[in-house]
């Protein structure tokens, strides 16, 4: 291996997570191939994009992000709408990424920041810091060192993938990338996209696993892990943090897939098929989507069983008969 080696220690905790994640991925592949569930795949991709942009202070809701992707008009800042379009293009071409090729990194930064950044697709020429809100976590290395640092990181990755598990390798890369902060803007988005790209080369199912949604949920812990690693001068804490989040998101995915499995009554399956995740529907809208006329039959055979199985929740649970009641797929 070359002289450059990012400092980190492979711990028992990491190996335990790698084992757990590998087992869960195997189970997910057996239970239900995500390839055969296009709406689930699309929902997860939308979650990835919404969460990754929300971390960077994009204010569009999940529903608005979905509308932009589906080509609907959305009232919002033009910059934020463009961020969604760019991220969707990048994630749609995920399969084409060679995560070990630095030219691909620049190309996809160009896609991710199109019309938004002057130095789109190029390493930064100015000095940058990493911020969580107003708080500066650390100052990145001077711009003149960036090309060499990035070349070293990619050379290390190419060599290290022979010996280091992709789950660990991708997390080390994520931290080192954030530390180098190679671009003027879009570093967080690119770090998360590249993390997913490395994992997708290992197991394709990662294309549709929204790791970004866990990072967004535990954003303070994410930045805290980065800050601790910066003080420690090595990425062990961050790698353990990322593996724990990936391990947990796979539990969510298993529940998602199981929620669609054969054990569900056919009526409940049909109801779930017409509902997008996290979008509120009226009872009448759902009946219309299902082509049903009888309200009582709809409630008895479709709605109530789905609510009892916690697959759908009411927006006003303490007033089940409220005329403002909406139903959301969980």
UniProtKB/TrEMBL annotation:
This is Fido domain-containing protein. PROSITE patterns: FIDO (PS51459). ATP binds at residues 185-192, 222-223. Residues 100-244 form the Fido domain. PANTHER family: FIDO DOMAIN-CONTAINING PROTEIN, FIDO DOMAIN-CONTAINING PROTEIN DDB_G0283145. It comes from the Bacteria. Pfam families: Fic, Fic-like_C. One of its GO terms (molecular function) is ATP binding. The keyword ATP-binding applies. The record marks 56 as: Important for autoinhibition of adenylyltransferase activity. Gene3D superfamilies: Fido-like domain. It comes from [Bacteroides] pectinophilus ATCC 43243. The keyword Protease does not apply. The active site is at 181. Keywords: ATP-binding, Nucleotide-binding.
């Amino acid at each position: 291996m070359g002289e450059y080696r990012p400092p980190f220690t492979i711990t028992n905790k990491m190996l335990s997570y790698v084992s757990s994640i590998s087992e869960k991925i195997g189970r997910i592949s057996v239970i239900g191939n995500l390839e055969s569930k296009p709406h689930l795949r699309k929902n997860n991709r939308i979650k990835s994009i919404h969460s990754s942009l929300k971390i960077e202070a994009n204010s569009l809701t999940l529903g608005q992000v979905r509308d932009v992707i589906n080509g609907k008009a959305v009232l919002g800042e033009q910059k934020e709408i463009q961020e969604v379009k760019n991220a969707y293009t990048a994630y749609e071409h995920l399969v084409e990424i060679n995560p070990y090729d630095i030219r691909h990194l620049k190309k996809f930064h160009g896609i991710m920041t199109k019309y938004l950044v002057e130095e789109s697709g190029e390493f930064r020429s100015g000095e940058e810091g990493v911020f969580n809100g107003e708080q500066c976590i650390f100052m990145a290395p001077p711009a003149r060192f960036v090309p060499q640092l990035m070349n070293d990181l990619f050379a290390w990755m190419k060599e290290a993938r022979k010996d280091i598990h992709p789950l660990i390798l991708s997390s080390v890369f994520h931290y080192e990338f954030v530390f180098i902060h190679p671009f003027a803007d879009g570093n967080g988005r690119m770090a998360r996209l590249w993390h997913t790209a490395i994992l997708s080369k290992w197991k394709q199912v990662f294309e549709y696993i929204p790791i970004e949604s866990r990072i967004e949920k535990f954003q303070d812990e994410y930045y805290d892990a980065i800050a601790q690693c910066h003080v420690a001068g090595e990425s062990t804490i961050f790698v353990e943090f990322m593996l724990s989040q990936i391990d947990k998101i796979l539990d969510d995915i298993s529940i998602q897939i199981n929620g669609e499995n054969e054990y569900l009554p056919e009526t409940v399956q049909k109801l779930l098929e017409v509902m997008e995740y996290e979008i509120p529907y009226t009872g009448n809208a759902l009946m219309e989507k299902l082509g049903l006329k009888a309200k009582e039959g709809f409630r008895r055979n479709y709605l109530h069983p789905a609510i009892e199985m916690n697959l759908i929740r009411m927006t006003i649970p303490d007033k089940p008969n409220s005329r403002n009641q909406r139903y959301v797929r969980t």
